[in-house]
Amino acid sequence: MGNFTNNESYIAFHPGYYVEKYLDHHGMKQSELAERLGVSEKTVSHLINGKNKQLSRELIDGLSRVLGTSKELWINLNNKYLETLKKIKV
């Protein structure tokens, strides 16, 4: 699936898309993010590659803390992704 899905009318960006952009911008490796989040590298890889549709509460809390954002940001990004994904698959 990757970290975004689209059709002719919509494009759904998985929250992992934004995490990947953050890592690229800050020169941070997935392994460093995994360590800071207290999760496995596989978990971060799945996030970056959009393999988990619903972000867990723990991941939302960790991303908020580590990246200096609000929890609401990640909740809203995830909800928008899921809403748009439904429109694409209709």
Short overview:
The protein is mainly alpha-helical. Helices cover 64% and strands 7% of the residues. The chain has 5 helices and 2 strands; from the N terminus they run E-E-H-H-H-H-H.
Derived from helix and strand composition plus strand pairing, the structural class reads: mainly alpha
Report the principal-axis shape: globular
- SSE pattern: EEHHHHH
Strand content: 5-15%
Main sheet specs = 2 strands, antiparallel
Number of strands: 2
Q: Which stretches of 5+ consecutive residues score pLDDT under 50?
A: none
Radius of gyration based on Cα positions: 13 Å
What is the overall number of helices?
Answer: 5
Order the strands across the largest sheet as they lie in space.
1-2
User: Overall pLDDT, averaged?
Assistant: 92
In helices, the fraction of residues equals 55-70%
Distance between the termini: 17 Å
Explain what this protein looks like in three dimensions:
Strand 1 (about 5) and strand 2 form a beta hairpin. By secondary structure, the protein is mainly alpha-helical. Strands 1-2 form a two-stranded antiparallel ribbon. About 65% of the residues lie in helices and about 5% in strands.
Question: Which short descriptors sum up this protein?
Answer:
mainly alpha; 90 residues; 2 strands; 64% helix; two-stranded antiparallel sheet; globular
List the topology elements:
Blueprint: E1 4-6, E2 11-13, H1 15-26, H2 30-37, H3 41-48, H4 57-67, H5 71-89
Antiparallel strand pairs: 1-2
